[in-house]
């Protein structure tokens, strides 16, 4: 492990909460697929399965920023313990209803409850890093890079695990394992009291959430568009591999994309950067857009694997400064809420990108669907450029206040 990361994990208390956070957020890459595999197996309908998954995703997008706001206000442990118990109960009810053959409509309130009680644990982990490294911006940059590597590893391994369990063991095994990861990881995370950020009650005269922050108003739709890129790439990659007669290699194709992002995150986090975060964020958006042009032009599956690896190299150098900007622009008493908001924006974007790309696949084929992630990246870059002045001004003002 490179020196900066070894030094990072030597921070007192870091290893336990990093390990707990990894286990607890494994489910973020497992829940959607697990529900589809379970519900489609017991109902025979992918339409119902997709609708149940969409219900959970939309509920999660509403609930995660709210739970993060309360974590900022009252403390992570105090909020997380009852929330994760409610989440486990909700998933248990969902699984029980599905296996008992209950009417399809009963699955929707259970999925909504599971989504509302699902936390954006990655945001909570990043908030801990911000607390521990508040006096060391360089090491905080490394920490956010490290967390991007963790996210990529989760999105590579999670779908493989849940699919193997649901198809090889029992249709409910995949979603059951995801819920168990959430429970075990969150309980272990809550137990790490020494690294927990102190509660930050709402300041007198301060009203509303993080959307009153102009920087967040710019970053949130950018992250939503980036989520559309990721969701569309998944669907387009699977459809493209199937068109070429190698559907079994779809996972390898998507893994090359994630591998490129993970490699870039390791490199990016080990460097010391002097350029402002806002400028790095905009450069990343430009490189990400440029990197998504070649997949539209390539028609060979084996060449596509190499192409998407290089396309993935721009993901982490975009996401990492994006999270860094949130950490810089959002007041400390709203930090977890701000980080959770952009994380859930990505989730909503993934759902939208998957749906849009699926429609394009049905109408024009898998290769044409690579236009969807390209168009989404263009939208993200244009929004970022339109709000660049606001981001730069906010970053400079927050830096001067910190100094």
Automatic annotation (TrEMBL):
Keywords: Membrane, Transmembrane, Transmembrane helix. SUPFAM superfamilies: MFS general substrate transporter. Residues 215-403 form the Major facilitator superfamily (MFS) profile domain. The chain crosses the membrane at residues 79-100, 172-191, 211-233, 248-269, 281-298, 304-326, 338-356, 368-391. Its main location: membrane. Pfam families: MFS_1. It is found in: Cell membrane. GO terms for molecular function: transmembrane transporter activity. PROSITE patterns: MFS. InterPro entries: MFS, MFS_dom, MFS_trans_sf. The keyword RNA-binding does not apply. GO terms for cellular component: plasma membrane. It is a multi-pass membrane protein. The keyword Transmembrane applies. Coiled coil: none annotated. Signal peptide: none annotated. PANTHER family: MAJOR FACILITATOR SUPERFAMILY (MFS) PROFILE DOMAIN-CONTAINING PROTEIN, PTHR23542. This is Transmembrane efflux protein. It comes from Actinomadura verrucosospora.
């Amino acid at each position: 492990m490179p020196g900066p990361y070894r030094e990072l994990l030597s921070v007192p208390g870091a290893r336990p909460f990093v390990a707990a956070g990894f286990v607890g957020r494994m489910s973020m890459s497992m829940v959607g697929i697990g529900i589809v595999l379970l519900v489609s197996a017991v109902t025979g309908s992918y339409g119902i399965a997709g609708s149940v998954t969409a219900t959970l995703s939309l509920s999660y997008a509403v609930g995660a920023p709210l739970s993060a706001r309360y974590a900022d206000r009252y403390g992570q442990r105090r909020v997380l313990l009852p929330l994760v118990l409610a989440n486990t109960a909700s998933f248990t009810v969902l699984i029980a209803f599905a296996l008992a053959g209950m009417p399809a409509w009963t699955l929707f309130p259970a999925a909504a409850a599971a989504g509302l009680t699902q936390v954006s644990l990655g945001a909570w982990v990043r908030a801990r890093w911000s607390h521990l490294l508040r006096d060391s911006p360089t090491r905080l940059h490394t920490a956010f890079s490290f967390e991007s590597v963790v996210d990529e590893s989760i999105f590579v391994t999670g779908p493989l695990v849940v699919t193997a369990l649901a198809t090889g063991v029992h249709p409910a095994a995949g979603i059951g394992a995801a819920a168990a990861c959430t429970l075990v990881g969150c309980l272990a995370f809550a137990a790490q009291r020494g690294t927990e950020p102190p509660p930050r009650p709402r300041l007198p005269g301060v009203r509303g959430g993080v959307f009153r922050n102009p920087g967040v108003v710019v970053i949130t739709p950018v992250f939503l568009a980036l989520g559309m890129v990721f969701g569309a790439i998944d669907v387009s990659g699977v459809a493209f591999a199937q068109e070429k007669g190698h559907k079994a290699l779809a996972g390898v194709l998507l893994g090359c994309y994630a591998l490129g992002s993970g490699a870039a995150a390791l490199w990016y986090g080990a460097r010391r950067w002097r350029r402002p975060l806002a400028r790095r964020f905009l450069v990343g958006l430009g490189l990400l857009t440029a990197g998504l042009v070649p997949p539209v032009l390539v028609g060979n599956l084996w060449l596509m694997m190499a192409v998407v690896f290089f396309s993935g190299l721009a993901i982490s150098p975009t996401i990492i400064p994006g999270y860094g900007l949130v950490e810089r622009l959002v007041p400390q008493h709203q930090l977890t809420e701000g980080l959770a908001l952009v994380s859930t924006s990505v989730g909503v974007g993934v759902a939208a990108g998957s749906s849009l790309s699926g429609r394009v696949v049905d109408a024009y084929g898998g290769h044409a669907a690579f236009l969807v992630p390209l168009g989404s990246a263009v939208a993200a870059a244009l929004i970022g450029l339109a709000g660049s002045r606001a981001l730069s001004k906010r970053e400079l003002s927050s830096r001067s206040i910190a100094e």
